[in-house]
Design brief:
mainly alpha; 210 residues; elongated; 434 Repressor (Amino-terminal Domain); two-stranded parallel sheet; two-stranded antiparallel sheet
Length: 210
């Protein structure tokens, strides 16, 4: 593949992942601090981009250059970040969920599909009492927060900032087109005993019904 063709494909890939409401040329020009005309010439492959410019573009749009260029490095490439022991790890994760939903909503045509092993995460955000418990469980048993070691869950200890983020996520999620046919539940998703426990939305969360 010639360098010019590779460069054109590189920009085509960036265009494909850019939200539809953003101007592709303006984004490239602003990021590289060049004029729109210069951006056009790079996009069309008329002017080669420098390594510094490619690095800026790859970092901004989260593109793996060696993967894109099909360079064999015997490495495995993943996207994401590892959750460390920092105190804000759970809040960072919730904020990222919110940003992902906002990104989905930025496109004109969108639809959400999901495969559920547990009760779908978005349903948990909408039932605040359930989410308060799950957020405690995740922080204690998955993220291993030291201050929660050996602690029991009490609803009164629910973190207000977590519930606030959950409400924001709920509001954005409800704008994304979806329907029950878009979700696949495993047989183990709803545990045995579900016949006598039904989650129904209330003003404060969920309630048990017979």
């Amino acid at each position: 593949m010639e360098q010019q063709d590779t460069q054109v494909l590189f920009f085509q890939h960036i265009r494909s992942i850019l939200p539809s409401h953003l101007s592709f040329v303006d984004e490239i020009a602003d990021l590289l601090s060049i004029s729109n005309d210069s951006a056009y010439r790079r996009i069309r492959g008329e002017k080669p981009i420098s390594l510094d410019e490619m690095q800026k573009l790859a970092k901004q749009f989260k593109i793996s250059i060696d993967q894109f260029l099909h360079i064999q490095t015997d490495s495995y490439i993943f996207s994401g970040s590892l959750l460390g022991e920092e105190e804000q790890a759970f809040e960072t994760w919730m904020t990222n969920v919110l940003k992902q939903l906002q990104l989905i909503n930025s496109f004109q045509h969108k639809h959400l599909y999901y495969l559920a092993k547990d009760v779908p995460i978005m349903d948990q955000f909408m039932h605040h009492d359930l989410f308060a418990f799950k957020s405690f469980l995740w922080r204690r048993s998955i993220l291993l927060y030291e201050e929660l070691k050996g602690k029991k869950f009490y609803l009164k200890d629910a973190r207000p900032e977590h519930l606030d983020l959950a409400r924001q996520i709920e509001q954005v999620y409800l704008k994304v087109p979806t329907d029950p046919r878009s979700g696949t539940w495993k047989a183990s998703t709803a545990p045995s005993g579900r016949s006598n426990f039904t989650a129904k939305p209330t003003c404060s969360g969920i309630r048990k019904t017979s």
